[in-house]
Amino acid sequence: MAQPKWYFEDFEVGKTIEVGSRTVTEDEIIAFATQFDPQPFHVDRDAAAQSMYGGIIASGWHTCGLMMRMMVDGYLCDAAGLGSPGVDEVRWLKPVRAGDTLTVSTTVVESHPSKSKPDRGVVHTVWQAKNQHGELVATIKGMGMFLRRPG
């Protein structure tokens, strides 16, 4: 692996990183839901049309997966990351539909060095996914562990 671009010190409180955009297709919505969340409004066009959503919508877990992929491609692959101890909150605010283009960003809300391991720190972030209309469709509050910059 090349020298990481992002270390713990790069995650200052208030910093926002735009990580990417992706358009969602009906085929991928149905494929994901068929395997992992086969509720009728995710997999059955007729049942979805009769639901409160009026058509096929993506599983919230699919939306989370899409957000994670954009985070990895957008900066985590270039970071001195050590994984995450978890997320504190996931919110699905608006349905994601076929043809929606999601744009994801992450904002640092807290950052502190580890007390027990001085070579790393913990960064708390809020991820946001917005659709092509600028509407917030999902948020994730969580944390990641990153190595401190050497030297």
Textual characterization of the structure:
This protein has 151 residues and is of the alpha+beta class. The chain has one domain (8-147): Hotdog Thioesterase (Thiol Ester Dehydrase, Chain A). The protein is 24% helix and 34% strand. It is built from four helices and five strands; from the N terminus they run βααααββββ. It has a five-stranded antiparallel sheet with strand order 1-3-4-5-2, covered by helices on one side. The longest helix has 15 residues, at 60-74.
- Count every helix, treating DSSP H or I runs of 4 or more residues as helices: 4
CATH class: Alpha Beta
**What is the helical fraction, as a range of percent?**
10-25%
Please report the distance between the alpha carbons of the first and last residues.
Answer: 19 Å
Which fold name corresponds to the CATH topology? Thiol Ester Dehydrase, Chain A
Structural class computed from helices and strand pairing: alpha+beta
Number of domains: 1
Largest sheet, order of strands side by side? 1-3-4-5-2
Compute the CA-based radius of gyration: 17 Å
CATH architecture: Roll
Largest sheet: 5 strands, antiparallel
Which strand-content bin applies to the residues? 25-35%
Spans of 5+ residues with little confidence (pLDDT < 50)? none
Query: How confident overall, as mean pLDDT?
Result: 97
CATH-defined superfamily: Hotdog Thioesterase
Number of strands: 5
Following the backbone from N to C, one meets helices and strands in this order, namely EHHHHEEEE
| Apparent shape | elongated
